[in-house]
Inverse folding.
């Protein structure tokens, strides 16, 4: 990567699979701080140490990336190692005498948050390590309406399954829907999984599939063993198994985390189909004007699930912009946990207090 000058903020999204609970790898790729894939994080920090900030000093004023919260709970020590690396790389680039009076040392603020706490339609608990050599801080999100599948996607009912533009039949009923809609009243990308074993089972038996149930549980409750998935029935255990079963979503709940298999993981609460490309894009915060550089559902799904959610990126970047402009919060909601280390956690704010919609989260269904 070519080092750049005048970079006040360097951000990235290196793979989070080194700390993801979905990682079932063994040996050098096993989950944890020593996983080989975490070298991608190190490469980002190394690159930052080769760039120059907007103030002309070595290293951007702020460096950050997005990851799963396991990167903090399991990888805090690794993040501190990156802090030491960034300080060492930028220190070595000082000219003789320039350092005096210009403290260069970076500090690290661990920011743990969630989509539901900042107005997104996914709970999506996330971690942003923020290395900064200028004053920086964040404050707790203010109380707000908790967004759900229905509040985000309810206006997209009754449409044809197609890539091409079509006119939306329903008027937007929530602010989330209004701010995502196109001015021309059209929408594209309303297409998802069109084939496969589970798709066939859904098409045939979807009417009896209750929101909140996964496919295996609803088939077992009804005593159904479709031939399409006969090989997944475990006779000795008396149940299905063998792969991750999709869930029929509950319309009044915040969204589950979307992975690279975004369109294969969730079944619509009302229509017998999987969530499609446009709906998954909305759950990640993208407006309906946004398009993906592909017309293949699987490729679009991978792009959707592996990107940084729009709301989360916007939320952290607003605080970083304030820091760059010399206006960090006067009373940030952070605590010092070690020398050069600070901590913020607003992950579960949406489950506490009397936030509109939080009573649903405290119920069993």
């Amino acid at each position: 990567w070519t080092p750049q000058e005048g970079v006040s903020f360097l951000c990235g999204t290196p793979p989070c699979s080194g700390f993801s609970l979905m990682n079932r790898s063994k040996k050098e790729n096993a989950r944890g701080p020593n996983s080989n894939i975490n070298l991608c994080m190190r490469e980002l920090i190394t690159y930052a140490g080769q760039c120059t900030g907007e103030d002309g000093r070595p290293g951007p004023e702020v460096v950050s990336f997005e990851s799963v919260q396991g990167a903090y709970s399991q990888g805090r020590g690794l993040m501190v190692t990156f802090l030491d690396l960034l300080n060492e790389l930028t220190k070595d680039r000082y000219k003789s005498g320039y350092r005096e009076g210009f403290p260069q040392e970076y500090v690290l603020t661990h920011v743990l948050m969630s989509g539901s706490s900042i107005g997104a339609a996914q709970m999506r608990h996330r971690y942003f390590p923020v290395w900064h050599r200028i004053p920086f801080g964040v404050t707790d999100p203010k109380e707000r309406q908790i967004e759900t599948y229905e509040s985000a996607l309810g206006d997209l009912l009754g449409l044809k399954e197609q890539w091409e533009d079509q006119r939306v039949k329903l008027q937007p009923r929530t602010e989330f829907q209004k701010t995502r809609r196109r001015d021309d009243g059209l929408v594209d990308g309303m297409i998802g999984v069109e084939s496969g074993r589970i798709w066939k089972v859904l098409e045939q038996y979807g009417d009896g599939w209750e929101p909140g149930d996964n496919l295996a549980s609803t088939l077992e409750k009804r005593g159904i063993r479709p031939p399409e998935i006969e090989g997944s029935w475990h006779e000795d255990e008396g149940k299905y198994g063998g792969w991750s079963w999709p869930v029929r979503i509950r319309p009044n709940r915040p969204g589950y985390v979307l992975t690279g298999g975004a369109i294969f993981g969730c079944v619509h609460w009302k229509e017998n189909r999987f969530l499609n490309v446009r709906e998954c894009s909305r759950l990640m915060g993208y407006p309906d004007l946004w398009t993906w550089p592909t017309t293949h559902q699987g490729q679009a799904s991978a792009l959707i699930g592996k990107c940084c959610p729009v709301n989360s990126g916007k939320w952290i970047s607003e605080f970083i912009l304030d820091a760059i402009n010399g206006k960090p919060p006067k009373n940030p909601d952070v605590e010092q946990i070690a020398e050069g280390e600070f901590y913020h956690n607003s992950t579960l704010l949406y489950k506490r207090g009397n936030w509109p919609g939080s009573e649903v989260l405290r119920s069993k269904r």
The chain has twelve helices and twelve strands. The radius of gyration is 23 Å. Residues 96-102 have pLDDT under 50 and may be disordered. The CA atoms of residues 249 and 269 lie 5 Å apart.
